[in-house]
Fold each of these.
Amino acid sequence: MNMKNEAITARDVDFAQWYTDVCKKAELMDYSSVKGFIDYLPYGYAIWEEIQNYLNKRFKEKGSENVYLPMVIPSSLFNKEKEHVEGFAPETLVATYGGGKKLDDPLIIRPTSEILFSDMYKRLVSSYRDLPKRYNQWCSVVRWEKTTRPFLRGAEFLWQEGHCLFETEEEAEKNVKDMLQVYDDCGKDLLAIPFVKGKKTEHEKFAGALATYSIEALMHDGKALQSGTSHNLGQGFAKAFGISFQGRNNALEVPWQTSWGVSTRLLGAIIMVHGDDNGLVLPPLVAPIQVVIIPIRQQEEGVLEACKGIKDTLEKEGIRVKLDDDNSKTPGWKFSEYEMKGVPLRIEVGPRDLKEGQVVLAKRVTGEKKTGKIEEVESMIPSLLQEIHNDMYKKALDFLNSHISDVDNLDDLKKALDKGGYARMAFCGSAECELKIKEITNGGTTRCIYKESAPEGSVCPVCGKPNTMVVYFAKAY
Amino acid sequence: MNMKNEAITARDVDFAQWYTDVCKKAELMDYSSVKGFIDYLPYGYAIWEEIQNYLNKRFKEKGSENVYLPMVIPSSLFNKEKEHVEGFAPETLVATYGGGKKLDDPLIIRPTSEILFSDMYKRLVSSYRDLPKRYNQWCSVVRWEKTTRPFLRGAEFLWQEGHCLFETEEEAEKNVKDMLQVYDDCGKDLLAIPFVKGKKTEHEKFAGALATYSIEALMHDGKALQSGTSHNLGQGFAKAFGISFQGRNNALEVPWQTSWGVSTRLLGAIIMVHGDDNGLVLPPLVAPIQVVIIPIRQQEEGVLEACKGIKDTLEKEGIRVKLDDDNSKTPGWKFSEYEMKGVPLRIEVGPRDLKEGQVVLAKRVTGEKKTGKIEEVESMIPSLLQEIHNDMYKKALDFLNSHISDVDNLDDLKKALDKGGYARMAFCGSAECELKIKEITNGGTTRCIYKESAPEGSVCPVCGKPNTMVVYFAKAY
């Protein structure tokens, strides 16, 4: 448990090892004894709770209500929507015994809940007066993945899944885009992460959806991370599950459905967008500890008292603050410790500064240090935290913008993707060409569509047919 | 969906049917297509969220931190603590296939997580400096029950489970009692439910615990409902899972463990303690709608404007308020509707009262109506809601107190339990006698211990051996 103050692998030496080091040493998670599953430890889980708070508020503004549906789906029900089952069946965990007896209808641990929501809506909806339905669920889902990485890909992860039902196609399409915007705002306002966002190609869309939209973050190693999706499910599930309603004109109609979700993958995005060689760097709004106060020469008169005074003042402001007065550790050790944990702001309180009526303020993201008057701490800190948020967003946005290039042939695409970042290129839009590009670029995939049109007369660099779209390509997690 | 305004079964006609009617017609839940599982609908789930908010705050005050552990337990791990596995194995749901392949080590869907917490603590704890650990988890658990009832007994339910680890037995015992007190406070302060509380007998304690304490609520039909438990797990799990730590004197020691939990059963308690023949009666602090405003003759000038004014005012006060201005429904229909949904306070706004500058305020719990000046609504409502909470608590407490009797023989015990409520009786404390009493009284069980001593010289009415304790007996859910 006391390993965390050792240095971690540098990002440029081994990014994957750096990532694992940060996850473990910042105590975000622990590997569980259940193969492929992780324990979400308090420091990691608290970040997720802040994301939940933000999204719950935003969802509510959009008229969403929280519900909870069963964690298992009977096989007989699971098989009703053909495309969907083909997409998910290979990675399911299946329960076959209950109460010591073999189950007649095996139960699939939910990998996602379109099926259960559709089945419920069939019971709850019979008239246009029952619409729209905008339900959301916070839960965990299980996908039997072969290779797993903390927060990025795991046998079980935490997420929210919104499932809505509307009278008209227009309302559904609006909802899909509204929720994508909520996720984009969550990045900008809460996580200090800029996204590239747009529609997925046919090949990359969700199993059973009419259209999928996603937000994609760019990690420090130049790889993209799909960070949230919003699906227009059309009428496919509704038809498969027999959902219908009496419309305004008394005719029986089929509703339009959407689903949208983000998961604990966002923790992975936070780590890999903001982290540095000293460890985690947390956006202030989700940091479990926003400010750490570290006394210098704490045995000297007045030091601890001053620390406690600042702590009380900040707590009254609603700031999450920790005073580390453990005298068995040196201030230097503590500096590294809270840098590893990504605490956005450190306040150093020592006898010399106190004489001047001031403290030292150190920003985690830039390493910048400045002094501030003690009596102004209360008024300074909230705006300083906002400033740190802005610093972090700007840094991430600059990185993103400097890693987008426009290319028009496979050679340049390959070079750009090898270098890291997004390459925008026009192509025909077919799944075949997409798969060939993946092979040629050694793993480059379409992340989302930049433009649903292409320069006139331009042809696909793979098949030579007319281009139909310009797409963000990248290597991705 | 429009059945909810029909009358429900009266409590005294068929209490079980009344309960089911309320669950369905107040739209707290729906029966899912997955046998034994329910859908928690927005109105029911929102009550659970208020309980979560209250408890999260109280847990945090006690130093608890939230975590999330895997939803499955490998069989090999599950079998390590003998008593525990014997208690839970018969009601487990077991996954045997993952990703299309048979699993070597089948996975048990968690019925409770003592095992996973113990296994994690073994990794996280090595020194007294790592203690105490006070982790809590909000999740769902699965128990393969044969007969299920909404919120009371189901294949899957939502709960929180706290799992703590301490250096000393004293700290563990204190934690067990502290958390029981938090649950008791939750009843008194949030749910307006008084509990009987105390230690369980050996026979009724948790599988694998040294001692179990519980809070027991009394339902309107005279049956008890175990509503929360707090367990002193001693060192049993720690020894079975090899958890040890270097103590202050450098010797290797074994820690002391506790666990404690409440579940969505509390929703069942709310329904059956407070509900009446008109439906649900919700304690104001957990009510998703605390105040409903119903316009009378809403087409007349000024009525809807006044309603909206009151709504805005109350919302600014942080009160959860709904204005129902659907003009396709009569006020009378709406009165029944929100009575069924248990909304604590109704405000009627009609042209006649408006002329007098007043509105009508109707309390759900007592049916009492009074008028209030419009300009005083803002200042009146918060205290009126508190008054309603107090009314509800007092009513439930009076019911509880009038349903506790003291008996000293089996005949009187049987009579008391047939009548409903608790009977306090001294007995020897053995599991054998407890089982015989259950048979004789047609289902009476020990709920918790009232006194860990008995009148001198008194003997057990079953076996004739000396009494050791006075116990609350009741028929229970």
Amino acid sequence: MKPLVITPLEGLPLIQEGDNLVSLIQESLKRKNLDLLEGDILVLAQKIVSKAEGRRVFLESVNPSKAAKELAAKIEKDPRLVQLILDESAEVLRARPGLIVVEHRLGFVSANAGIDHSNVDEREGWVLLLPKDPDASADAMRTRFEEAGGAHIGVLIIDSHGRAWREGIVGVAIGVSGLPGVVDLRGRPDLFGRELRATTVGAADELAAAASIVMGQAGEGCPAVHVRGFPYPLREGKLAELLRPKELDTFR
Amino acid sequence: MKPLVITPLEGLPLIQEGDNLVSLIQESLKRKNLDLLEGDILVLAQKIVSKAEGRRVFLESVNPSKAAKELAAKIEKDPRLVQLILDESAEVLRARPGLIVVEHRLGFVSANAGIDHSNVDEREGWVLLLPKDPDASADAMRTRFEEAGGAHIGVLIIDSHGRAWREGIVGVAIGVSGLPGVVDLRGRPDLFGRELRATTVGAADELAAAASIVMGQAGEGCPAVHVRGFPYPLREGKLAELLRPKELDTFR
């Protein structure tokens, strides 16, 4: 078995709307003397994808509704930000001072609908929404990487989420292309030939967490990493594999 | 920045009670020509630690209580297994057919109190409990590795847990020694000099997930990995950093 190697792709410029992320990452790979080989995976922080896609919103432009104002008073946040959170959400699960947990329109549960305050712009007053369709964003980039290089690769877009019962945020997948979201090992024999039970692995989330270690969280400027040695076979994949259907969720 | 490299330590024998895990891993490192350098981390699957510590229980030896029998009927599990789950738990959070979610006596929330069915013994009827005190197990091993090699390293013991809202199990830390459980980045400047907010990173859990990718879940026989390039400074750490205090938990 080979090691798993996660290489930071430093030196990307601050990303602006319209930037060609694929070209910028290709240049970064070149500086590292890294080719894209069969089975390699590129992991990108949500932040640079959202910026390139122009998902910035100027808070001044938001007109909060009565519902947003009421919720904002309760949780002690800017009503305009709360309006954006509601716009990006399917359902509010928990709201108390300082905390709003929602089901995002993309299907996952997260704090503040993934709306990001930091590292957005020198000027105050901008916030960043998640990409409109992160699976599609990952698909589009993968197509361009594969057309340029020939090898089948995976592209993963990640964000950092809190967990229900544990402290600290961890990297999670929000857009998946060309790799499994979940790997189903049920039915495979264990070491003694007995069938493994109830073993579906959140492989794309594990990789998101791994990549997040290398990206760092403090804006060190490394929002893209290259992965070699991911041991599960690549295949078409998508975020939805990782989302528990609401009716099976006993923790809302 | 250096890459994060996670190397599988294959070739460990099937672990038996009383086995010297430290020696076995040292031999495995030698076969890989890997030294333990300053800042390296060894990640071990809970399974081999529990086995070496003799945490196997023969189900025949368990005498289920009335409460265990009633719960077992409700969730359609073996009453003796349910008794062990209750013995290992502080509180039952959810119970329905096929699913029992508890607060483990070690403080984390998990399914089946982490009691493991597969890969335990050729004979049927054994199950494996988690180590009695995984932080202490990790501490003891780290001391022996450091005495042998001289370099400061980390030792992490991991298991795989389900998540509240997402499909697929992922690696999580259950025993931490010599590395941070959580890294607190609050107060550090972001790219534009603004203060980062609410950013504590579950660094040991991210590393557990990363290591879990390399270990695999299907009993491929690689329950130990070597990590180089973990970017956060090593320090004393413990599981408790990763556990949300019950009174702050809104999802029970």
